Amino acid sequence: MIHLSRRQFAASSLVPLGAALLPAAPAHAQETAPEASHHGSGDSFRDGLSDVLDLHGLPEAAEPPGDNPLNVFADLGAWHAYGLPSAADHAYLGGFSGPLYVAEEYPWYLSRAFSRFGLVDERSARAVDLSGDRAPRLEARPGLLTQSYVTDGLCVTVELRYATNRSALVRATVQNRGNSVRELRAHWTGSLLRHTSEPVRSAPRLQATDDGVAVRFAEVRSFKDFLTTAQTRFEVAHAGSVRTTVHGDEYRTTAHRPTRLAPGATATFTWTESYTFTDAERRTDHAAVREALAHPDRVADRADRRWQRYLTRSFDGVAPDRCRTAAKAVQTLVTNWRSPAGALRKDGITPSLTNTSFAGGFWAWDSWKEAAATAIFDPQLAVSTIESMFDHQIQADSPDRPQDAGMVPDALFYNDIRQGGLNWNERNSKPPLAAWAVWQVYERGGGRAFLHRMYPKLRSYHAWWYRDRDHDHNGLAEYGATVDPANDSTAQRRLAAAWESGMDNAPRFDDTQVRTNTDRAGRTIGYSLAQQSVDLNCFLYAEKRFLARMATELGWPDEAKDLNHEADALRDRIRAHTYDPATGYFYDCEPDGSGPLTAAGKGIEGAVPLWTGVASAREAAGARAALTDPAQFGTFMPLPTVARNNPKFDPTGYWRGLVWLDQAYFAIRGLSDYGYDRDARAIGEQLLQHADGLLGDGPIHENYHPLTGAGKNSANFSWSAAVVLEMLRKHPSAAPLPRLRDGGQRA
After folding, report:
1. SS (H, E, C) 613-677
2. Same domain, 114 and 254
3. What string of DSSP letters covers 245-257?
4. Is residue 605 in a domain?
5. Number of folded domains in the chain?
6. Structure confidence by residue, pLDDT tens digits, 615-649
7. In a domain, 703, yes or no
8. pTM for the whole thing?
């Protein structure tokens, strides 16, 4: 079949959570008396957590590679991010690399380091050379980037935190460690990093402002790679009185007055760096910027307290020698957090800010997994991550697709398809893990009101699967495609259906056919693959159980009883049609009831019946044998998506042999819940130890090579980070369906 992964497809062929804005205050026009260096609520919670992820390096071009080799840091859902120079980058010391900004849907670099702080000794007219410190401290710490230099009788420290979902707060602290008075004038320099071709090349231009410098953008609506309007703006605003000169693509901002430092005295210079999409955003953010410049300690204290809370919650149950990895997982999720913008109405989490295709949108089943783990440290962000997808749930009065009422689209971006967006995708949905995610978030602090809001939406989504994706109405659903202009051929419908599975090019879909689904009046309402997928129906079984729990919690026992009866029947149906006793494993099955599709070979989807509690004890034992066999799923980096002895196994194939941590985690939790704790622990430890860079300072990858452990495809991948955080905890999230008396027991 045609393979096009979600990184390649085009769908058509402001207040941050956890950080309310400070009250408005008059702008602070100039540096006043020197203030002491900030230590906030105490930085000890960051001890031992420097550079959990290597953020050093400078961009070489305005357009980053598809999989950017540089890691970045963002916070509060900001749409721009930064890294650190290395000690050898002498010309860029005093500045933070980037920023990387999202041009609505695609990441670009504005500069190698846009704001480089420097000092000139007024008496000698000589610049203070930061590279004179041969061992500067250039560190990324959770929620904070820092640079510290001891040179020329001075200690210079530069710190970057985020103040709002549109602005970073930067402070440079200068201490005189000499024996004589110093008179120093601060300055900031930077330049644009231009693209090589039009119209992007000419889009940004520098402009001096009263309090710093701005980058204005021309309107460019290139929906495949770069999107700006005349309102898009990047701005640097200084607390002190400054003047700026611009020469072409370079600028220099200079403090109006020098700063006089007695021996031992300290001065602090404060500025913000803001990236906004609209004039309305900029006006809203300006009030917060003024207050942040006037009271930077408040911003720093608040940020530090929030990050201390994140880490305290995330480290619960984590072995001390694994806390750095847990912190990296949290940092990855937070960096990939995007706040409301364009068509995205609520905060959510993108798959990866450092991947061209994944930086600017929310995907459905990514969001479910991300939310479940994010609830460990920020339940309200988790709530928003789920609701950001359901904001666009198809309604019965939809002018475009009323037949899809209840469906949650596959992917949402800044621009929807009606605005010309190419990445917004309603051609298909994604596997139904939403009810599981809602329950996880609820149990981790999401609140009863959240459960009450979500229950009817989840029921509607659940019903859609059986109305639009059960071709023969036998109670076993299929992955499929919607009625959509882009689904205009059998090949395109099959492609969208494979996307709907989440396993884009899995071998089980190589030879499948597509069937048309109709309503009672004979109208086409969608399409289904000619096979009933074991994972899909197990997820639907789990949804029924979770919906039953919700109904019980909300005081609707009759609904809970009906849902549990439905689940019992579905469990028996899945066992009867998808398990093959001869091979001891679960497979997709023929829709005509003729049995499992064993010819496609074993895939990791066959472990889902363990995670959801569908398998009997005997069936689980058969699956366990395959999952632990070195010739099948027990590879060096264990639990590949396709068994090693499958003729279609490809250790570099996207869903044809690579290890995806979410699928591996489902299998591990399933093994544990069926009593195979020793296997589960051993496999989990193999995953953590053999994944390249995972326990060091490397990024968490989208997937891994099963025979070498090398990280593959996107770095800084959110759902992988979510799974890592779960795996590190001694008290991990309970398997979706532990032994219950409501019919969920494993027999």
Report:
1. CCCCHHHHHHHHHHHHCCCCCCCCCCCCCECCCCCCCCCCCCCCCCECHHHHHHHHHHHHHCCCH
2. yes
3. EEETTEEEEEESS
4. yes
5. 2
6. 999 999 999 999 999 999 999 999 999 999 999 99
7. yes
8. 0.92
